[in-house]
Amino acid sequence: MTIEKKRLASRIYLLLAALFITALVTCNLIANKFVTVDLGFKTFVISAGVLPYPLTFLITDILSEMYGRRKTNEVVFSGFFASLFVLFMLWLGHQFDATGNSPVQNTEYDTVFQNSWRVISASMIAYLTAQLVDVRLFHFWKKVTNGKHLWLRNNFSTFLSQLVDTTLVVSVIFFGIASTSEIAQMVWDGWLFKVLIAATDTVLIYLAVYGFRKVFGLQKGEELVID
């Protein structure tokens, strides 16, 4: 690979990492709002944080396929520390009283972010576990299929890791607050919604992988080396 293409591969890696971390932080910040999403055949009751979250799994699958397990795990851990920083800054913002002319007063700030420590803590536990499961399963299926059947490792790794993620997040946030049946329903709605989105992004990962292979002249199963 030429120096120019190696630089391009590094820039794309950084861009995907930045998009991943942005989507993850956004998930945490809007997770306190629950919404209904009507897809016609079913109305889902989900956290607004679920909306951008499938993007993180699509990105890790693209990174796993094109950059390998180690580079993908680096992005996963970077997202974890970014979430820790956000949690610290939200706590720090709570320690100071709002001025009289502040557009956001203490009560408004607390209403939006008072539960953030619990949401982000739950999210971080679930996120780190689920993403590492996703990356490991992706490479497991890649090895089993000898680099073939991208759709299989893309979906099978995501389906299970999303179940782990949804179960952990909902359980930690609502333990002692909601009933077991309510928690189970929220887990089901959240996981099913994520599965449907993950199934539709199969086309996107095929397009992304095709583009990578065409631009960088890679063979099937070959990964980019950027360091």
What is the tally of helical segments? 8
Global Rg:
19 Å
- Poorly predicted segments: none
On the 0-100 scale, what is the average pLDDT?
82
Strand content: under 5%
Oligomer: single chain
**Judging from the principal axes of the Cα atoms, what is the shape?**
globular
Name the helicity range. over 70%
Structural key phrases:
single chain, 227 residues, mainly alpha, 8 helices, 4% strand, globular
How would you explain this protein's 3D organization?
By secondary structure, the protein is mostly helical. It is 74% helix and 4% strand. It has eight helices and two strands, in the order H-E-E-H-H-H-H-H-H-H. Strands 1-2 form a two-stranded antiparallel ribbon. The mean pLDDT is 82.
